[in-house]
Amino acid sequence: MENGLAALSAEAFKLKMQEDVIVLDTRESSIFTQGFIPGSIFLGLEGKFTEWAANLLPQGKPLLLVTGKGQEKQTVNLLAEAGFSKIEGFLQGGFEAWQKAGYQTDLIIDVETDEFAMDIPFDANLIVVDVRKEVEFADGHVKEAINIPLGEMVDPASMANIEDTHNLYLHCGTGYRSTIAASLLKRQGIHNLRNILGGWDKIKLEPGIDTEKDAAVLN
């Protein structure tokens, strides 16, 4: 058995989760949002995986993996590149095995930009959370959006101003980072959120959404 390539049944995986471990799900974002193990952190292999692993995962904590079919070895190798070697194993049969065992699952509600545009005028508690970098945010964002760059979300204090009554609409540039952000927020017990599909790339093309730039960028 190679490092990290211990195949765990759903039952064994669930038992391991009682230890001080992190469940890391590396499937594609569009698949992850439809269903995942509660408390998992999403880091899809389709994005800047090693960079975000190094930035967001706590060093030294053992990892349990949920991967796409046949992607276990690739995930372990990429994690090694990012400096992570404490891997307790992967979920044999993937997320489907977890579902078949009848264990609890969670999901993230994805919304299209036109749905988002329709919700804005009617929801007084709607808060747009833009998780792009400050420079990206400054160059154009939804009016009154708050900027919490994904890299800062390792600190739970970054989410301190989020109230239970807020309806959060998360986005990044294309949708990858906002799915990571949604998984981190849910780990902190913040569940009242939606993920805007296509991110800023689609939002800026959607009529009916007020956007603005920071004055400093306009000068």
- Amino-to-carboxy terminus distance: 59 Å
Helix proportion: 25-40%
What is the typical, i.e. mean, pLDDT? 94
Percent range for β-strand residues? 15-25%
The top level CATH class name of the largest domain: Alpha Beta
- Main sheet makeup: 5 strands, parallel
DSSP summary, beta strand count: 12
Give the overall silhouette: globular
Give the name of the CATH architecture of the largest domain.
Answer: 3-Layer(aba) Sandwich
Number of domains: 2
- The CATH homologous superfamily of the largest domain corresponds to Rhodanese-like domain
Unreliable stretches (pLDDT < 50, length at least 5) are none
Please give the count of helices. Answer: 10
Q: How do the helices and strands follow one another from N- to C-terminus?
A: EHEHEHEHEHEHEHEEEHEHEH
Q: In terms of topology, how is this protein built?
A:
Blueprint (H helix, E strand, L loop, with lengths): L6 E2 L1 H7 L5 E4 L3 H4 L8 E2 L6 H8 L6 E4 L5 H10 L5 E5 L2 H7 L8 E3 L1 H7 L6 E5 L3 H5 L2 E2 L3 E2 L19 E5 L4 H12 L5 E4 L2 H5 L7 E2 L2 H4 L1
Structure explained in plain terms:
The protein folds into two domains: 7-100, 3-Layer(aba) Sandwich (Oxidized Rhodanese, domain 1); 109-218, Rhodanese-like domain (Oxidized Rhodanese, domain 1, 3-Layer(aba) Sandwich). Helix content is 32%, strand content 18%. The protein has helices at 10-16, 29-32, 49-56, 72-81, 94-100, 113-119, 134-138, 176-187, 199-203, 215-218; strands spanning 7-8, 22-25, 41-42, 63-66, 87-91, 109-111, 126-130, 141-142, 146-147, 167-171, 193-196, 211-212. It has a five-stranded parallel β-sheet. The protein starts with 6 loop residues before the first strand and ends with a helix.
